[in-house]
Design a protein that fits this description.
Layout lengths: L1 H32 L5 E5 L2 E8 L4 E5 L22 E5 L24 H14 L6 E5 L1 H12 L6 E5 L12 H6 L2 H6 L1 H7 L2 H12 L8 H5 L1 H4 L2 H12 L1 H8 L10 E6 L11 H7 L4 E5 L6 H4 L1 H14 L4
Parallel strand pairs: 3-4, 3-5, 5-6, 6-7, 7-8
Antiparallel strand pairs: 1-2, 2-4
Helix pairs in contact: 1-6, 2-3
Length: 323
């Protein structure tokens, strides 16, 4: 009996080592293939990745869940940098930005709130000289953009919210977020995904995010899915998404205080962040907010109909007196 126990223990150790080594090798490959494309700034000792291009009024772009600032660099930022100083930021734990103190580690389920993320990003923006920006947030980044505006209402020229999470939703987000967002799941399940998930599963997930449209050619290789599959990034993403709803309940009570120009852009075919649950009520919660409904468009309008999003940014800038 003792021998069987020892054999089982030895096999368990071997399996753990194989998983962790495989995960580490895949992470190293992803980091080599997708190094930071901007600069790293230190915010109270925590490294944050920021990319700046163009000149003109400041425009901050905040990416969504499972992403990084590369989402804006396929060609979207190029459409804006002739007339804006475009500032792209990796959110905590994603891309080349570290997690905030107290949230890193395998055996934890706690995560950075949208408010904490907004304050963190604002400090980085201060370091690189951002002043009274237009702030655009996509998906989860929309919640951070709203928190940004609530934190600094007099220093935010305008908001552009694209497929943005903004209001409480019914039900849960599925078993994968529940498992990966838990302490045990983050420590035990996430390494397995990092080590062994096939590329075909990554491709199918991207297809679901872009549906009913197709992802632009080369998008997966450009954004670096391996960065999202790193253990630390998977934990950060799952924990942030899994804990988001209570924060949305809280900040949604404050939207009526926002007085800056707000442009809301949302596809009617978005099943990831449904328009009727989020942007339709949001347009009624903020006086003067303008909702642009994109018929038949899914969750990624800044890629599939980028001109509609660029036009919304230009409208917000005009309304704010920046153009």
């Amino acid at each position: 009996m003792a021998r069987k126990t020892l054999i089982l223990l030895a096999l368990t150790v071997v399996i753990i080592l194989v998983v962790q080594v495989s995960a580490t090798l895949r992470e190293r490959a992803a980091n080599r293939a997708y190094p930071p494309v901007g600069q790293i700034v230190e915010v109270d000792g925590t490294p944050l990745h920021v990319l700046i291009q163009g000149s003109g009024p400041d425009l901050v772009l905040i990416h969504g869940a499972s992403g990084n600032l590369r989402d804006f660099t396929l060609d979207f930022a190029d459409r804006l940098s002739d007339r804006y100083r475009v500032i792209m930021l990796d959110r905590p734990g994603l891309g080349a930005t570290a997690r905030l103190p107290g949230y890193a580690g395998a055996w934890t389920a706690s995560s950075e709130s949208p408010q904490e993320q907004a304050i963190f990003l604002q400090k980085a923006a201060d370091i690189v000289g951002v002043q009274t920006p237009i702030v655009m947030g996509h998906s989860y980044g929309g919640a951070v953009a709203l928190a940004w505006a609530l934190e600094r209402p007099d220093e935010t020229a305008g908001l552009v919210l694209v497929s943005a999470v903004s209001n409480p939703w019914p039900g849960n987000l599925g078993w994968l977020y529940t498992v990966n967002g838990s302490a045990a799941g983050g420590a035990l399940v996430v390494p397995l995904i990092t080590a062994f998930v096939p590329n075909s599963l990554v491709d199918s997930n991207l297809a679901a995010i872009f549906a009913p449209q197709d992802a632009p050619e080369g998008y997966a290789n450009h954004i670096g899915p391996g960065l999202t599959l790193r253990r630390s990034s998977m934990r950060a993403n799952a924990q942030q998404v899994n804990s988001l709803r209570p924060h949305i309940v809280d900040i949604s009570q404050e939207y009526s205080a926002l007085e800056m120009p707000v442009e809301i852009v949302h596809g009617t075919a978005d099943t990831i962040v449904p328009m009727e649950i989020h942007s339709v009520p949001l347009s009624q919660q903020i006086v003067g907010a303008v909702l642009t409904k994109l018929e038949g468009i899914g969750h990624m309008p800044h890629h599939v109909v980028p001109d509609a999003v660029v036009d919304a940014i230009d409208r917000a800038a005009t309304r704010a007196g920046l153009r």
